[in-house]
UniProtKB/TrEMBL annotation:
Biological-process GO terms, alphabetical: cellular response to iron ion
PANTHER family xrefs: MOLYBDATE-BINDING PROTEIN MOLA, VITAMIN B12-BINDING PROTEIN
Protein name: Iron ABC transporter substrate-binding protein
Domain of life: Bacteria
InterPro entries, per database record: ABC_Transporter_SBP, ABC_transptr_periplasmic_BD
Signal peptide: 1-24
Amino acid sequence: MHRRNLLVILSAMVAWLFAGLAMAGPRAIVDDAGRKVELPETINRVMAAGPPASVLIYALAPEKMVGWVREPSAEEKTFIAPAYRDLPVHGRLTGKGNTANLEAVLAMKPDVIIDVGTIDDTYASLADRVQQQTGIPYVLIDGRFAKTAESLRKAGDIVGAKDQAEKLADYAEKAVSRLNGVIDAVPADKRARVYYGRGPEGLETGLAGSINMEILAIAGARNVAEAAGSGGLANVSLEQVLSWNPDVILALDPKFQKSVLADPQWSGVAAVRDKRVYRAPTVPFGWFDSPPGVNRVVGLAWLAKVLYPDVTNIDLGSDVRDFYKLFYHVDLTQAQIDTLLAHSAPPAK
């Protein structure tokens, strides 16, 4: 009787051991482009193909980053945890101005390359080509803002950071839910008509369907530049902006924010007349755009504050502090929070 029990236990242990060995080897996943990608057993070094992926990896598992797509500026570094400020710079594989070559990729010795953003045949073809030429797995993850929580969980599973991924995803879902509560309190015909001006002249903007304008739509506001058609970023004329007469102007460049409030040519615009011109903070990564990645989650609270100041009681400073701690691994000082919010939000009531 005892011998039989011992044999049963030994058989179970052998089965468990072989099952563990089978699971420990390389694993295959299907990325968001429908590509089957073989991943190594352990992932310790992760390379970002472009800026949105760089932000995601930094938020998720900074200790596994092989480097930055571009070197952070001196100002940006003050908002990045000291251990990661001076990582090597490897350039970008995707988008305009791609600067990374295959030699640079191989030199970094990543276990996996991750790209986050648009999913189409062009990016899938690039991923296949780099993967074939380097032998390094290359994963594409859908970067649409609506997919933020899903993309975080997916990336966390890939790189072995599930716990952190769940914290970040939960934060993002709650941020969206809170914003929806604010929007619901504002009648549709009272929601802001917004112009987003990029560059020192403020005459580059995002058209209908632009990934750069995603969180504006999520905030329930209307992008007045949709009148110029569909597409990505485009240059428009001052005459067009005057005809659209936005209620709010969001600026990316401090020069534009300052000049638009003093320029008589813009004085007829409602947003200028009412002094509702706000600059989206950009350090270490943009709150509204630049890049269009998970960094935009903090922009939801900011947009609620600048677009709907009469119906939101969000403590923006506290919210910013929490976000930077969780996503950027830094404890902000009050002076840093004040710097971020200067010229970026309406005065506290």
